[in-house]
């Protein structure tokens, strides 16, 4: 199977009551950890690159790494997606260089400007067989170049979604219903929750239309503990409970973005390795342990959050 777009993935996910995981990739070991887990569980998967990832690794490396994963795992559908495209040019660049899906993030702009920008990207993408995700509403939190204070975050207004989708022609829509970017989402003792009622309202207005959730890491405490027990100093923080994400996945949510949890896994594996083997200096040994935890986390997400096992 070649690299695919998310069109068919989302149709099946919508009708099957599950979601496809969109995991951020920055290097070879992360690509391997994610796709090894997805292949073992026969799950479709979306690999996504942010602006920060493209700056760190170079877009050409990322495209080629993902193509290698596709060649090694022909039995599962794999899509390559641009996460948070900031303007038309970065989306065009990715469309021209082999991405099968792009996100244009005009969510910080006024409604009409967001419509205009998202439509321009959608028109260009569709001419090239690429699908487009846009965003309406704003999430709090920090993700690479995206930084939104909690007080400026806004839930998506269900009364705007039909007009937005009709005017732009986008293929999926990221909405803000209580998730948040980054590993420090919520303080312990708070009660983070997804507004499933807003999701229901939106999906009633857009029947059959795929919805996307950003900022959906759960900040697994077992990995935070490993990091802090091995010389780390992460603050206490909690994420979105996995059972709530599972509920969203059963509804119109077809794509769930997960980044921070993989970072925690990679860091936990490397820290644990160095504490146990301070004499080691071969990167294959310690990054290999990080890769193992990335794979374990994706495995858990597919089973407990996404429900996408055996859907390839
Ligand atoms: Zn995001």
Structural description of this entry:
- This protein is an alpha/beta fold.
- It has a single domain (7-264, 297-306), classed as Aldolase class I (TIM Barrel, Alpha-Beta Barrel).
- The protein contains 12 helices and 11 strands.
- The strands form 2 sheets. It has an 8-stranded parallel β-barrel, surrounded by 10 helices.
- Strand 3 (78-85), helix 5 and strand 4 form a beta-alpha-beta unit.
- Helix 5 (88-96) packs parallel to helix 6 (111-127) and helix 11 packs antiparallel against helix 12 (283-306).
- 50% of the residues are buried.
- It binds zinc ion.
- Residues 84, 143, 181, 214-215, 257 line the site of zinc ion.
Attribute tags:
11 strands, 312 residues, 8-stranded parallel barrel, globular, TIM Barrel, 3-stranded mixed β-sheet, binds zinc ion, alpha/beta, 12 helices
Nutshell version of this structure?
With 312 residues, the chain is of the alpha/beta class. It has a single domain (7-264, 297-306), classed as TIM Barrel (Alpha-Beta Barrel), CATH 3.20.20.
Morphology call = globular
Strand order of the largest sheet: 1-2-3-4-5-8-10-11
- Poorly predicted regions are none
The number of helical runs is 12
> How many strands, what sense, and barrel or not for the largest sheet?
8 strands, parallel, barrel
In the CATH scheme, the class would be Alpha Beta
Helix content: 40-55%
Radius of gyration: 18 Å
Find the CATH superfamily: Aldolase class I
Number of domains: 1
Global mean pLDDT: 95
Amino- and carboxy-terminal Cα gap: 11 Å
Using the 3D structure, state the CATH architecture: Alpha-Beta Barrel
The beta-strand count equals 11
Structural class category: alpha/beta
């Amino acid at each position: 199977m070649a690299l695919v777009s998310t069109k068919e993935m989302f149709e099946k996910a919508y009708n099957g009551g599950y979601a496809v995981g969109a995991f951020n990739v920055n290097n070879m070991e992360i690509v391997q950890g994610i796709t090894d887990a997805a292949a073992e569980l026969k799950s479709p998967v979306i690999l996504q690159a942010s602006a920060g990832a493209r700056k760190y690794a170079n877009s050409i490396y990322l495209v080629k790494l993902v193509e290698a994963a596709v060649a090694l795992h022909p039995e599962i559908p794999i899509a390559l997606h641009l996460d948070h495209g900031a303007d038309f040019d970065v989306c065009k660049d990715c469309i021209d260089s082999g991405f099968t899906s792009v996100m244009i993030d005009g969510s910080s702009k006024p409604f009409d400007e967001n419509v205009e920008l998202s439509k321009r990207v959608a028109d260009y993408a569709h001419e090239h067989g690429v699908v487009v995700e846009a965003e309406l509403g704003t999430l709090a939190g920090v993700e690479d170049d995206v930084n939104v204070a909690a007080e400026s975050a806004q839930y998506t207004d269900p009364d705007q979604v039909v007009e937005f989708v009709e005017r732009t022609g986008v293929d999926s829509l990221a909405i803000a219903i209580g998730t948040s970017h980054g590993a420090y989402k919520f303080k312990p003792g708070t009660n983070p929750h997804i507004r499933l009622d807003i999701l229901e309202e939106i999906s009633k207005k857009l029947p059959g239309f795929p919805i996307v959730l950003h900022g959906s890491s759960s900040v697994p405490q077992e990995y935070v503990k490993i990091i802090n027990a091995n010389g780390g100093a992460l603050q206490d923080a909690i994420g979105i409970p996995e059972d709530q994400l599972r509920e969203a996945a059963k509804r119109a949510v077809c794509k769930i973005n997960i980044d921070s949890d993989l970072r925690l896994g990679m860091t936990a594996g490397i820290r644990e390795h160095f504490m146990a083997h301070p004499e080691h200096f071969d990167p294959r040994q310690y990054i290999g342990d990080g890769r193992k935890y990335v794979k374990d986390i994706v495995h858990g997400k597919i089973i407990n959050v996404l429900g996408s096992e055996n859907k390839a």
